[in-house]
Amino acid sequence: MRAFFAVDLPEALAPAVADAQAPFADASGVAPVDPERAHVTLKFCGDVADAADESADAEGSAPALDAVIAAGERAVDRAGVAPFDCEVEGLGVFPSREYISVVWSGVDAGTAELTALHDALEAETTALGVDPADHAFTPHVTLARVGDASGAEAVRRALDAEDPEVGTFSVDEIRLVESTLTPSGPEYDAVREFGLD
């Protein structure tokens, strides 16, 4: 299974996520994410072998689910982050304004705590053989993915004209999430929750 660690936005913020997407949601080549599945990804793990996969312990294979769960527990302890408030606002893009593939809303309050959790998860999961991140961690909520230049122009107009406030919410846990790709978009299922002390 494909898995990642994340902080989920509460469903109460879904309308505000949809409002932030509205200026470019209907543009050609732009695929908005489901507002009810909005989250901040802390660490993408890629393929994880569940208990039924007997190759989990083989050299060079995907790490076992139990090992990833244990790594999540160690990471939360290592980060030492207490429950905190997270504020999501504004618009940004990856990798650049000239070539846009992802549109996101950034994190203001809560950046330090999310970064501490990311750093701890990065250390614990790469020790299991998970690929290290290939870019600096920028805590954000993905709003849309952009597939062609016509969509990118609509996003650039929004960058110049909009400054959405998605909202503030309390974070008292992180989750290990299974991501299943489907023709209508990814489906997410929580595998395990890790409470913050």
From TrEMBL:
**Catalytic activities:** a 3'-end 2',3'-cyclophospho-ribonucleotide-RNA + H2O = a 3'-end 2'-phospho-ribonucleotide-RNA + H(+)
Entry EC number(s): 3.1.4.58
Q: Where is this motif: HXTX 1?
A: 39-42
Protein keywords: Hydrolase, Ligase
Tell me the function of this protein: Hydrolyzes RNA 2',3'-cyclic phosphodiester to an RNA 2'-phosphomonoester.
NCBIfam families the record matches? 2_5_ligase
PANTHER family according to UniProt? RNA 2',3'-CYCLIC PHOSPHODIESTERASE
HAMAP family, from UniProt? RNA_CPDase (MF_01940)
- Tell me its family: Belongs to the 2H phosphoesterase superfamily. ThpR family.
UniProt protein name: RNA 2',3'-cyclic phosphodiesterase
Task: Provide the species name.
Answer: Halorubrum tebenquichense DSM 14210
What are the leading ranks of the lineage?
A: Archaea, Methanobacteriati, Methanobacteriota, Stenosarchaea group, Halobacteria
